[in-house]
Amino acid sequence: MTTLPASDIQLPLFIYTQREPLTEKSAWVALDEHYRDRARHFQLERLFAIDAKRGESMAAEDVGIYLDYSKNLATAETMALLMQLARQCGLQERIDAMFRGDKINNTEGRPVLHTALRKPAGTRLVVDGENVVAQVQEVLGRMAGFADRVRSGQWLGHTGRPIRHVVNIGIGGSDLGPMMAHEALRHYGKRDISMHFLSDVDGAALLETVRTLPAEQTLFIVCSKTFTTLETITNAHAARDWLVAQLGDAKAVSRHFAGVTTNIKQAAQFGIDPDNMFGFWDWVGGRYSMTSAIGLSTMIAIGPENFRELLRGFHAMDEHFRTAPPEKNLPVILGMLTIWYSNFFGAASRAVLPYSQYLKRLPAYLQQLTMESNGKHITVNGETVNYQTSPVYWGDNGINGQHSFYQMLHQGTQLVPCDFIGFCKPLEQSGDQHELLMANMFAQTEALAFGKSATQVRGEGTPEELVPHRVFDGNRPSNSMLIDKLTPYSLGTLVALYEHSVFTQGVIWNIDSFDQWGVELGKVLAKRTASQLLDHRQPLHHDSSTNALIRRFRNCNRSSLQARVA
Ligand code: G6Q
After folding, report:
1. How many whole angstroms separate alpha carbon 436 and alpha carbon 518?
2. Which of 207, 329, 516, 529 is the most exposed place for a label (fewest CB within 10 A)?
3. Ligand 1 center to residue 1 CA distance, Å?
């Protein structure tokens, strides 16, 4: 996303900063002592042995998500200290400020209001004199009208045929959310419309996407908050060229392109009919935008009613986060446990492991949400932190992971706390397959926590030289999230759970979770370098490594470039 030039930003007074350094807060100091004196020696086996009710007492539930956090290296004392830290960092005040529309995105001087996208129709939230809920509902209404026309076949392409293929063109926050939601909610999707997602500027991506698509039945949705992102605009132009070449008429563009953007002017210049344009606002961050008009492809796939259900799920979790006490607050528990492992145990990553084919893109979506939000080392006061911030979030479908990277989770040298996500009911009943799937999830959390001792291994008659290889130390922590069924509503609650867990972590680390300055430098350098790859006469003033790489690339492509220029 292109953000405001630094010179245009009026930095607000740092009303949300914490004056006392994080590591000097009494709860942090107490947590540090607690870790050194006790917690680093915690053994899950023992914690469970001394408290028969641990599995039920260290759990929280609301809005359809049951979170079992008992298999963590934590006790009631740990949790109390973590919640004390949250209070000392002013978490509730910051939550209230976000929901109120205060400009908590300090470095960009903006409010952070993705929660307003999910507020029910008829409610109010006035920001700078405007009722933003009414604005949101107006766009949702237009989206629903458009989605209904496309779904019913009423919307006709240039040659009079209905749309049967939709290509979302966007990148980062304008791609990952819609793509994840499309996969997650396939079961609810309109099967006679195929959905495609084009983000990579590699020409192969477009060619492979359109290879089998009939242009006369294809709709492109260009999703770009700024409408200036190089990859998206390049792909949008290439898609337009393809469409016009296929249909032989430039007028076809208005029937085959829709736009989702805050930059209506640029989108109109590109040729998108204003009637097919859907706006949103600068207070919606890219990675928090899947419930804005960026979700147009989702709405076309699952229909406006199901999209409303998705919003209802998000809103239910928003309200839970805003009102539940920290001890019972799911995003706060999840967020504070991440602080616990990152800052005290030194864990560098967290794995997200859904036991659902439909959620296979969730880890990729969460990577951006978590790491672009909290992968920062400067506090909102402009100081360098003296503690770790965002861990690496990674993962895959749990069941596939079991046959690849779980080896490292069980017997590797790094501590990787895991989030397991599963559903009680399957969407597609097929014999006993769902029981088999979920048995694997439960078994993995058990194996990670309790392992297998040398005595047990020997008892199985294992040759002595193999015993150390077959021992599982256990004591590897995990959360388990259990949800009744994957629905638009429950997906909303789950994604909002992570959004607010990220917010919680950002408040503790005292960083702005809503800017992304770290992506700027590469974009600027890429623009300069692109012109050097296209014009071989331009001198190279990079470092010796980059110069050598560019020279080699130029040499490989000299003849093809000459042919293209000629
Ligand atoms: C998200 C990021 C980033 C952004 C893309 C696309 O929070 O800012 O991933 O979504 O760079 O930006 P546009 O939507 O402006 O094309």
Report:
1. 43
2. 207
3. 4
Q: Which one of 169, 176, 229, 372 would you pick to mutate in the ligand 1 pocket, going by the greatest count of ligand atoms within 8 A of its CB?
A: 229
DSSP lists the bridge partners of residue 197 as: 168
**Rounded-to-10 torsion of CA 89, 95, 96, 101:** 120
Is residue 394 a contact partner of residue 367, using CB atoms and an 8 Å limit? yes
The DSSP code for 193 is S
Question: Which candidate, 369, 329, 491, 350, places its Cα nearest to that of 423?
Answer: 491
Q: Is the CB of 1 under 6 A from ligand 1?
A: yes
Q: Is the CB of 516 under 6 A from ligand 1?
A: yes
> pLDDT tens for residues 189-235?
989 999 999 999 999 999 999 999 999 999 999 999 999 999 999 99
The DSSP result for 232-266, as a single string, is HHHHHHHHHHHHHHHHT-GGGHHHHEEEEES-HHH
469-508 pLDDT, tens digit each? 999 999 999 999 999 999 999 999 999 999 999 999 999 9
Residue 232 CA, ligand 1 centroid: distance in Å: 10
Atom of ligand 1 nearest to the CA of 172: 9
| Amino acid 1: pLDDT | 42
Sheet with 392-395: list strands edge to edge.
59-62, 65-68, 478-483, 418-423, 349-354, 392-395
Identify any residues that bridge with 66 across adjacent strands, giving them in sequence order.
61, 482
Q: What is the pTM of this model?
A: 0.95
Alpha helices in 428-517 (DSSP H): 433-450, 454-459, 467-470, 488-509
CB of 285 sitting under 6 A from ligand 1: yes
Q: In terms of Cα–Cα distance, which of 426, 464, 136 is closest to 291?
A: 136
Find how far residue 329's CA is from the centre of its chain. 20
Establish whether residue 287 lines the binding site of ligand 1, counting it when its CB lies within 6 angstroms of any ligand atom.
yes
The neighbour count for residue 511, using CB atoms within 10 Å, is 23
| 263-276 pLDDT, tens digit each | 999 999 999 999 99
Q: Report the nearest-CA residue for atom 9 of ligand 1.
A: 172
Taking the centre of ligand 1 as the mean of its atom positions, its distance from the CA of residue 226, in whole angstroms, is: 8
CA distance 511 to 503: 10
Give the active site residues.
372, 403, 523
> Would the CB of 226 count as within 6 Å of ligand 1?
yes
Task: Specify the residue with its C-alpha closest to ligand 1, atom 6.
Answer: 1
